[in-house]
Design brief:
The structure holds 2 protein chains of 2 kinds. By secondary structure, chain A is an all-alpha fold. Chain A has 14 helices and no strands. The longest helix of chain A is centred in the middle third of the chain and has 36 residues. The mean pLDDT of chain A is 86. The longest helix of chain B is centred in the last third of the chain and has 18 residues. In chain B, helix 14 packs antiparallel against helix 16 and helix 19 packs antiparallel against helix 20. In chain B, strand 16 and strand 17 form a beta hairpin. The chains are: A mainly alpha, B alpha+beta. The interface between A and B is large, with 60 and 68 residues.
Chain lengths: 317, 544
């Protein structure tokens, strides 16, 4: 077990390094640099002399060879120092610390909502014996999942904020400001949960042990929740990493539509400005979250399914 | 009985005009009935108190008005600082603010300001000549974000503290534009303590100014909250109200989605919104809110022609582009209400502007004749050719302004009618310096420059500076230098008029429209007005 965790931590370090390096490469390959992005395009930018631009490049250290820049940044990052934003001069750490709580509140609320909604639909769809209701419930997740979160958000704002004025359209103070964005973010996530869980529940309900349980006199609710759900939840658990990735990706849209100051908005602004230190900070943080979630899922798996054994070398068998 | 059909018509009209934002612009009928429709309540009297909420599209992430160039961010930060002088937005005249009077030396190198007594910064320290010196000494050292401020003080030689309330600011070269520059927020006066901090610290924590409001809270990308300074008593000579401002508090919130901004205004969640597009104007008016617009002085949107390219070296071809454009059609189709077709290379409200509308009139026959004379004959596809080469202009643009794409598509159609092919090439903003360096373009769209002083012409078109459009050296350079050294406003206007005429006649750049910015403002808000450079001053604004 300890060997397994050590092995996974080694893997995590590689993943973080790769995420850091790939995002750095992408930013370096983009045309222009942070100074060019800062001074903009148009008349005001056309008034900046090449000498002044060169001077600014020196000040910001973007005139150095790419490898040197990469090496310095990486060495600092290993020590936990991601430097300061090119665009605003604010330390990356404090930029992230300001945005992270908002994104965490939003994504965790959305995740909880999505699990309840998704599991509810999956259980209802597999429990009933009426085929039309089953079909209806099963067709709901793919339908809902194919609607862009952006659109869902705008519709929610249109009706529940502009028309009926129940919730505010923007701002992140208090739970009232959280309802619409969390709901918007929960919808696509719930669709994935429902689809995965419904499929594995259907499979589980056809397994011999379900027949055994029924033969032993277990009622339909007990069979459904105790026997089938427990076995069916493993596939749902394994997609948790995917869900977290999806939540982070969709939070970019949701934070824009609902004017929330979270990590999504930070990264959009940083990529546009080619603000390398900020992008690197957020990318490494996202990769770390991804790695940790997957590690937790793998550690939980044996608890859900005792047949799974964690070994030191190859993950679970 | 009569109300419902009116509302219904308004809704339909809105839907037709606002298709891109239709999802959000389909407004509730409730908004239709709730109209406090008068734009400006001349009947009611101003009253103090209240909070103004303002939704802006973007945030520069920096709380220092000297460094920030984006108007979205300056709407708030402008209120925290005062400038030495102010500029009348109608006449362009420079009037007293923190400086009660001033003198410009004959060589336009030294500017002596006599400060108003009794002014204090919000940290309690008095405004003195030393504070002005500290504030200006720090400007050249501001970083990449402060391109405007550092440009205004190029050649800064120093500030002499003549006496406690007299400061003399000097430059190594004649710098007539500097007087107008002292009206801007980029050269607002900050406290000595703020001036000593690094540009980064100033961005993070903001600066201490003498303005009518104080920055109480700033969260980058989210909001800025300002509170009134009750002991404020040194407003610009243009302001109507004496003493402190009317409003208690100003809250600026960043709302990136234009449809959400519009809906927030029409549903009463905010009092004012920025960056209003033409498509949303009907929705705003339908809900009883008003539009407050302002033409940005300086250089408007234009097509800059690269004079070093073979086809464009011929002045006839450049002139053909100039008269082939139907500016009125572009304005009416694409731009915000109140936008004016360009009538010179300078916007109509820029000091020194001269009316050249006759030269910029639409005349496609004349354009065709000019092209015929230049030897470009219509090819089989309508595009003209000469010696086997097609009259195709690689036109570079950036999508940093939403209306650019529809404006360019219309421009492309209009030029195609006379046989000129605009090959539109969109680049990323960060590619701009490389583009200027390589000169790999025939035409560049945009080129606007916010500056309420005619020196904008020298900044952009003097061959001694960046000279983005590869304008050949000509008597224009001498004119531009002379106006920069001319302290007498009337004589300077004459030089500037001649410079405009040379630029427009030679069509180095082809002016298309003046740049206009439009705010949506609730019917409850009064006296929210633009200042000289496109900032807003909220000292006189009040809510009913």
């Amino acid at each position: 077990m300890r060997l397994y965790v050590l092995h996974r931590m080694g893997q995590a370090a590689v993943v973080l390094w790769a995420a850091y390096t790939v995002s750095f490469l992408i930013l370096v390959l983009l045309p222009g640099d942070a100074i060019a992005a800062l001074t903009g395009a148009g008349g005001a930018a056309a008034s900046v002399s090449p000498e002044r631009l060169a001077e600014l490049r020196r000040e910001y250290g973007v005139d150095k060879p790419v490898l040197v820049q990469y090496g310095t940044h990486l060495a600092d990052a290993v020590r936990g120092d991601f430097g300061a934003s090119f665009a605003t001069g604010r330390p990356v750490g404090s930029l992230i610390a300001e945005a992270l709580p908002q994104t965490l509140t939003l994504t965790l609320t959305a995740l909880a909502l999505a699990l309840v909604l998704g599991a509810g639909v999956a259980l209802a769809a597999t429990y009933g014996s009426r085929p039309w209701l089953r079909q209806l419930l099963l067709s709901l997740p793919p339908l809902v999942g194919s609607v862009p979160a952006f659109w869902v958000g705008l519709m929610l704002i249109q009706f529940l904020s502009f028309r009926f004025r129940i919730f505010p359209a923007f701002g992140d103070d208090g739970w009232r400001g959280l309802v619409l964005p969390a709901l918007t973010l929960a919808v696509p996530t719930a669709a994935i949960v429902a689809q995965v869980l419904a499929r594995s529940l259907t499979t589980a309900l056809a397994e011999p042990y379900v027949r055994t349980a029924r033969a032993k006199g277990a009622g339909p609710v007990r069979v459904h929740l105790r026997h089938a759900l427990r076995n069916a939840s493993l596939p749902a658990l394994t997609v948790a990493g995917l869900l977290v990735g999806g939540l982070l990706a969709n939070s970019v849209l949701v934070e824009t539509v609902f004017s929330r100051n979270g990590l999504g908005r930070v990264i959009v602004a940083a990529v546009t400005a080619q603000d390398v230190p900020v992008v690197q900070g957020v990318v490494v943080l996202s990769a770390a979250v991804f790695v940790v979630v997957n590690l937790i899922v793998d550690l939980l798996s044996p608890l859900v399914d005792p047949r799974i054994v964690l070994t030191g070398t190859g993950g679970r068998t | 009985m009569s109300r419902t059909p009116v509302c219904r018509t308004a809704r339909r009209g809105r839907r037709l005009h606002a298709l891109p934002i239709a999802l959000v612009a389909l407004l509730p009928l409730a908004a239709c009935a709730s109209g406090g429709a008068d734009d400006d309540g001349g009947a009611t009297t101003a009253r103090p108190g209240g909070t103004l909420t303002f939704a802006v599209a973007t945030d520069a992430g920096c709380a220092d008005p000297q460094q920030v160039g984006s108007s979205d961010t300056l709407y708030s930060l402008r209120q925290t600082v005062d400038s030495l002088t102010d500029q009348n937005p109608e006449t362009g005249e420079i009037v007293p603010w923190l400086a009660a009077s001033w003198e410009v030396s004959k060589d336009a190198k030294t500017f002596t300001f006599r400060l108003r007594p009794g002014v204090t910064f919000s940290d309690g320290t008095p405004l003195t000549a030393q504070a002005v010196k500290d504030s200006f000494d720090a400007v050249p050292k501001l970083g990449a974000l402060a391109v405007q401020a550092t440009g205004y003080v190029e050649g800064y030689a120093g500030t002499e503290v003549v006496d406690d309330l007299t400061a003399a600011i000097s430059f190594k070269q004649p710098n007539a534009q500097f007087l107008q520059a002292t009206t801007t927020s980029a050269l607002a006066v900050v406290s000595s303590a703020s001036a000593k901090r690094t540009p980064q610290e100033r961005c993070t924590d903001g600066v201490v100014g003498t303005g009518p409001f104080v920055l109480a809270d700033y969260t980058p990308n989210q909001s800025a909250t300002l509170t009134r300074r009750d002991d404020y008593a040194w407003g610009s000579s243009l302001w109507k109200k004496e003493g402190a401002a009317y409003l208690d508090k100003l809250v600026f919130t960043v709302v990136p989605e234009s449809g959400v901004r519009t809906g927030s205004l029409t549903s009463g969640q905010v009092d004012a919104i920025g960056r209003l597009a033409q498509a949303e104007e009907a929705a705003i008016k339908g809900a009883g809110a008003g539009l407050v617009g302002y033409t940005i002085p300086g250089i408007g949107y234009n097509l800059g022609l690269n004079s070093s390219k073979p086809a464009l070296q011929d002045v006839k071809v450049r002139q053909a582009v100039k008269v082939a454009i139907n500016r009125k059609q572009i304005v009416e189709t694409v731009f915000s209400s109140g936008t004016r077709p360009a009538t010179s290379v300078l916007a109509e409200n820029t000091p020194g502007y001269t009316d050249l509308s006759a030269e910029l009139a639409y005349d496609s026959e004349q354009a065709k004749k000019l092209l015929d004379d230049a030897g470009w004959t219509p090819g089989p596809d309508g595009i003209r050719t000469k010696d086997g080469a097609k009259l195709t202009l690689k036109t570079v643009w950036f999508s940093n302004v939403a209306v650019f794409k529809p404006a360019l598509e219309l421009l492309q159609q209009q030029l195609k009618d006379v046989g000129i092919d605009l090959a539109l090439t969109e680049l990323q903003v960060a590619q701009f310096p490389a583009l200027l360096k390589s000169g790999d373009f025939d035409a560049f769209w945009g080129g606007n420059y916010n500056r309420a002083d005619p020196d904008a012409l020298r900044t952009l078109y003097s061959t001694k500076l960046v000279n983005a459009y590869r304008v050949p050296a000509s008597p224009l350079d001498a004119l531009l230098d002379q106006q920069a050294a001319e302290p007498d406003p009337a004589r300077r206007d004459g030089l500037v008029a001649e410079a405009q005429r040379l630029i427009v006649t030679n069509a180095y750049v082809v002016p298309v429209v003046d740049q206009r910015t439009v705010l949506g403002v609730s019917g409850k808000v009064h006296d929210l007005r633009f200042a000289g450079s496109g900032d807003i001053h909220l000292h006189d604004a009040w809510k009913s």
